[in-house]
Amino acid sequence: MALNIPGLVSLSVFFTLTLATGIWASWKSKKDQQNRNPTEMAIVGGRNINVFIGLFTATATWVGGAYINGTAEIVYLPSKGLLWVQAPVGFAFSLVIGGFFFVNPMRSKNYVTVMDPVQESYGNVMGSLLFIPPLLGEVFWFAAILASLGATMRVILDIGGSLAIIVSACTVILYTLLGGLYSVAYTDVIQLVFITLSLASPWVCIPFALVNSATESIYYTATHQSYQDPWIGKIEKQYLGRWLDDFFYLVLGSIPWQTYFQRMLSAASPGQARFISYLSGLGCFLMAIPSVLIGAVAASTDWNQTSYGLPSPLKRGESAMILPLVLHYLCPAYISIAGLGAIAAAAMSSADSSLLSAGSMFAHNIYRKILRKKATETEVLWAMRTSMLVFGAGAACLAFYSSSVYDLWFLSGELVYALLFPQLCCALFVPSTNTYGSAAGFLVGLLLRLLAGEPALSIPPIICYPACSLVNGTYSQLFPFKTFTVLLILGTIVAVSYLAAVLFQRNLLPHRWDV
């Protein structure tokens, strides 16, 4: 396949427009930050982000490259199907629950990061330990997004994936360094418009794929065997526990992330923050529909009738690229270029959020509160910029190892669910808990999660929960152990905190140990 010159030009225009928007937003933030805290301007936009911008940036943060690519892939896979597409509903519920329970206590106390209530309740030592999983999660997520974008450009433009990774990383790092949340929020508007117009609009991508001569009716193939199993999928009884575990992980595990709270804490009031959270949940759900249709089209296509030929993407191990493959082989060239713009926009809208989140938590919770307690605002701001540069460069290097990066991100995301979510709940809603309970919960959660194993990283389980099975030499935990671990940690934090309080009250422990 020859170099796709029109696609390359189109993508160059998109990158230039995004960078220009980011630079303009940086200029706007500097103009607006007079008589305001510069660090707070960079992290939470001076708490002056309006509802329109807030809705766009909150939705774009979740509707990333992995979201639209992954949704299409799961619908396409014969072993999964639509019933296993949990992210759209899971994220929607997560944003609604977050808005209903978590936004008000966080925004009303003017916190800056998700780590603030944890650090305030349990001290700097626990704060620094609990900072590690979300930091790793943000860096691995940034790397995974870049890897996905590189692979997509290789398919459609026939350029080296490494070049795409480097250009994307440099663009994101530059405008995020310049303008902080303002740049990220305003570029999110541009990126979400690109996604909507080029992928979701009914007059662009979807009709061409649906009416292609190589594609059967998706209404028929939803429930009937055609070129592969029906794309509606099924949930077998023995996998129900895992399905529920994954669903709760998406719903509850998506809450304790700085990317989410950064948007909510930037709103002008708690009421506006809740409104943004609710509406962005609806937006996330709606933005998954085009990907579902594209996955259904892929499952209904005779690939031998296309220039792609046989074997199918499934047998070639290219299921993860099914969305760009459908755009490239089932749509006209100019349509596939528009679709590439959507994928690039989705990738960058999540990548900049991850980079800003990692830098914000390091500068505010580690540098300011632990390393340099007397640091000036300018010093903290430069610490944030330096850390973003380091994290961004590290993520770009990791992006060249795409498969392992995704696996590491999944593991770090599960650690955030197991370790940080119970701690955040207790810090906000159970004020009687203390550092001893937090430390006990951290140790119990870390041990339980790691001892449960991780098949993707070839880590065998030490603890085999009920329904644990050995398939093709790999252990699979079918019991909802992630959610079980979260509940156990919640109980541990409360119980050990109560025990420690009683021991101090009865003078069985010296008061100098009361931290």
From TrEMBL:
It is a multi-pass membrane protein. The chain crosses the membrane at residues 49-69, 81-102, 122-143, 155-177, 189-211, 275-301, 321-347, 380-402, 408-430, 483-504. Residues 1-20 form the signal peptide. It is found in: Presynaptic cell membrane. It catalyses: choline(out) + n Na(+)(out) = choline(in) + n Na(+)(in). The keyword Lipoprotein does not apply. GO terms for cellular component: presynaptic membrane. It holds the Pfam family SSF. One of its GO terms (biological process) is acetylcholine biosynthetic process. One of its GO terms (molecular function) is choline:sodium symporter activity. Its main location: membrane. It comes from the Eukaryota. Keywords: Glycoprotein, Ion transport, Membrane, Neurotransmitter biosynthesis, Signal, Sodium, Sodium transport, Symport, Transmembrane, Transmembrane helix, Transport. Belongs to the sodium:solute symporter (SSF) (TC 2.A.21) family. Homooligomerizes at cell surface. Interacts with SEC14L1; may regulate SLC5A7. High-affinity Na(+)-coupled choline transmembrane symporter. Functions as an electrogenic, voltage-dependent transporter with variable charge/choline stoichiometry. Choline uptake and choline-induced current is also Cl(-)-dependent where Cl(-) is likely a regulatory ion rather than cotransported ion. Plays a critical role in acetylcholine (ACh) synthesis by taking up the substrate choline from the synaptic cleft into the presynaptic nerve terminals after neurotransmitter release. This is High affinity choline transporter 1. It comes from Thalassarche chlororhynchos. The lineage of its organism: Eukaryota, Metazoa, Chordata, Craniata, Vertebrata.
